[in-house]
Amino acid sequence: MGALFDSHCHLDFDDFASDRTAVMARAEAAGVAAIMIPGVSRRASSKTRISSASIELFYGVGLHPYFIAEHDYADIDWLEQQLQRCPHAVVGEVGLDRSCSDYRKQQQLFTAQVELACAYQRPLIIHHRQSQADLVAILMRYRSKLPAHAGVIHAFSGSYEQAQSWLALGFMIGVGGVISYQRAAKTRSTIARLPLESLVLETDAPAMPLAGYQGQRNEPAQLLLVVDALAQLSGWSTAQIAAQTSSNAYRLFANR
């Protein structure tokens, strides 16, 4: 099986502070060659960035709805400065989440971040919870201005029709641990019907553990289990999945 690309891993979170080097060593041993580390807030992104000699690291900057209380509208100016300084940074993790407070503020900040993604032609990493219709409605207003590779709908959970809405906008579908749960029948059925060219793999570590690992910290080495789950679901070989999803992620995040 070829090298793997974890398209969504919060490797900079404090959950990994005590053993980050060991976590990355396990990821490398599992065949993970690249990791996208999304940003979630101005404060979190102000930390010293981690580095690796063996795993290629990519970064995003964004204002995640989980941290809506600490976001300020002035953070949009800060975000634009980061995009100017870092020509390869993507916009994310951003989105809308109805389980979080101040939904109107979420919508305003999300729209502003979409405008930055359009202005600087950077892909978006989008979080959703009970909000896909609202997200698509906002993005449709910017459809002609979005980057050719618009981004990824992270941790996709939904119907085939919802997935088609994202593909029509130029987004890829993020596939993670949710497909390992039998109860996620609708999402499993949807992912099995989508073309492999539209998928990227992700762990969302330290969150989103796979079935059988509930209550444990997730980590990028577990991407192997996502590959296995997708192979069982789809009929594609693990080698096909590794090669195509990594190619998809490199095209999306590195334009190559």
Which strand-content bin applies to the residues? 15-25%
CATH architecture: Alpha-Beta Barrel
**Largest sheet report:** 8 strands, parallel
Shape: globular
Number of strands: 8
Assign the structural class, choosing from mainly alpha, mainly beta, alpha/beta, alpha+beta, or little secondary structure: alpha/beta
Helical content stands at: 25-40%
Main-sheet strand order equals 1-2-3-4-5-6-7-8
Number of helices: 9
SSE order, one letter for each helix or strand: EHEHEHEHEHEHEHEHH
Q: What is the multimeric organization of the chains shown? A: single chain
CATH fold name, please? TIM Barrel
Mean pLDDT comes to: 96
Q: How many structural domains does the protein architecture include?
A: 1
Task: Detail the poorly predicted runs.
Answer: none
List the helices and strands and how they pair.
Layout: E1 4-6, H1 20-29, E2 32-37, H2 42-45, E3 56-61, H3 75-85, E4 90-97, H4 103-120, E5 124-129, H5 132-140, E6 151-153, H6 160-168, E7 171-175, H7 185-193, E8 199-201, H8 223-234, H9 238-254
Parallel strand pairs: 1-2, 2-3, 3-4, 4-5, 5-6, 6-7, 7-8
Helix pairs in contact: 3-4
Structure described in brief:
This protein has 256 residues and is of the alpha/beta class. It is 39% helix and 16% strand.
Description:
- The protein is of the alpha/beta class and 256 residues long.
- It has one domain (4-254): Metal-dependent hydrolases (TIM Barrel), CATH 3.20.20.
- It is built from nine helices and eight strands.
- The longest helix is centred in the middle third of the chain and has 18 residues, at 103-120.
- The radius of gyration is 17 Å and the shape is globular.
- The mean pLDDT is 96.
